[in-house]
Amino acid sequence: MGERRGRSVSSDTGSSIYFSCDEELSDEMSAPRLNVLKTKAESRALAETIKVWIVELPVKAANDILIICKDQIPDSDSVDLQHLRRFAKANLLPPYLQPSGSRASSTDSRYSTASSSSTGTKSSSRSRSRMRKRRNSAASTLHLLICPTDVISQADLSSLMMKQPPFAQDGFPLRLREITVPLLAPTSVEQAQQWTAQYWPTLYRKTNPFGPHPSLVARSEEEIRDEASKYMMLARQAAAESSSRQFGIGAGCVIVERKADRHAEIVAVAGDARLSGLGDSINPLSQCSGNIACHAAMRGIGMVARKRVRVASPKTPKDNADIDADELLVKPVHHVKDTPESVSASLLDYPLTDLEQEAFDQDNLIANGYLCVDLEIYMTHEPCLMCSMAIVHSRFSRCIFGTRMPSSGGMAGDSGLGYGLFWRSELNWKLLCWEYTASKGQEMAVLKEDTQV
Ligand SMILES: [Zn+2]
C-alpha cells in the first residue's frame, strides 16, 4: 500500500479508515478498511435507555420547581443523568417534543393535562386562552427533566405539582410527559448530537468513560493504517501455508513491535497448528496426537517469549538454563534443550515453516522488553476466548483482526458472544482493537462458524 495515498473517513458508528484513495467510489468501497471496535460498555451505552418525566414550566418558576422535586421526591437523583440537560428550551428539543408536533399524535410520550379534568367544559375557553398565551410566550418557558418514571407515579407527581405555583388551580397548565432518554453518557460529540435529535438535549463531556479516548484511537490509527494491510496479508499467507500443509486450520497471525520512531518490525509469524502431530509425517518428533490449543495467537506469543529469552540472554550458561539460546537457532527447532520433548512438541511455539522461521530468526525485539507490552497482533480472524485472554494477559497494545467469529470470538463487545475482552473495567489490562475488512479478492479463509480461532 506504500505507493498509494491513504485517507481517513469518519462515520457515526466509529472511526473507519480506508487505505486507498482511488477515484471511483466503487473502488473505495472495496478498499480495505479498519473499524475500531466498540467496547462492551460503549455498546451498552448505545442501547440502554430509561423513561423519565418531563414538564414545561415558566422560566421564573423553574428553579423553585426543581428544588421541590429534589426535596419531595425520594430517589429523584438516584440515577446519574448528568449527561442530559436538566432544563431545555423548546427550540432545543427533538422534533417529536416540539410544541407543534407534540400533541396527541406523539407516539413516544404520554400526554397528561391534570388541571383540565377537574375543571370541565366551563373552563375550556379559559384553557384555550391559556394555551394561546403559552404558545405566544414559548420563549419564556423551559422544559424540565424531573426524574425517572419508576421513582414516582404519574398520579403522585401530578398531585405534588398541582400544589405548587405556577400549576396550582387556574395556573399554568400541567403537562407531564413520559419520554425515553439514553441511560448512559455519550462517547462522542456525534453521538451526543444524535441523541439530542432523537431523545433529549444531551451533553458530551469530551471524554469516553466506556472506552478509549477518541484522541488515543485517532493517534493509534494514524500509526497503523499505512502498514496494516501488509501485516494482514502476511497473516493470511501464514494461514494459507498452515492449512495447505495440514498443520492447522486457515488462521494465522503476525506480531509486530513498533519502535520509538514508529518504525515497525515483524517479530513473529504463526499459523494455526492444532492438527500438527496427527500424522507422523508432519512432525516425526511429536509424541502427542495434536494439541487443540495450538492456535495461531498462542504459538505467536510463545515465539515472542522464546525470542525474549534469546535476546535477553545470548550467552546463557548451559548448566543454568531451561532454554539454550544456541539451540533455538538450530533449524528446524523442534524442541528446547532440557525441556521435555513432548512439551515442546505439544506447544509448537517454534517455527514450522520458512515464513515463520524467517521472522523467528530476527533478533529484532527491543532488549529488556516485557511480555508483549507495546506489541501489535494482526490476526486473520477474531481470536477465540482463550486467545483473547492470552492477548490481554500478554499485554499487547493493539489487536487487529480480519473476520469476525460471532460464535467463538472474544473481542467483539457489540455482537456475537459480546465479551469485548480487549477493554473491560474489571480486567487489569486494556488494549485497542480493530476489525479489518480486506479488499475484494483478499478476504480471509472462510471457516466454520463455530471454529475457535
Ligand atoms: Zn484461539
From TrEMBL:
Xref: Gene3D superfamilies: Cytidine Deaminase, domain 2 (3.40.140.10)
Keyword annotations: tRNA processing
InterPro entries: CMP_dCMP_dom, Cytidine_deaminase-like
SUPFAM superfamilies the record matches: Cytidine deaminase-like
Feature: compositional bias, Basic residues: 125-134
GO terms for cellular component: cytoplasm; nucleus
Stretch list, region Disordered: 98-134
Record-level GO BP terms: tRNA processing
GO MF entry, a single one: tRNA-specific adenosine-34 deaminase activity
Record-annotated CMP/dCMP-type deaminase domain positions: 226-434
Low complexity compositional bias, start-end: 100-124
Family to which this protein belongs: Belongs to the cytidine and deoxycytidylate deaminase family. ADAT3 subfamily.
Protein name: Cytidine deaminase-like protein
Organism listed in the record: Myriangium duriaei CBS 260.36
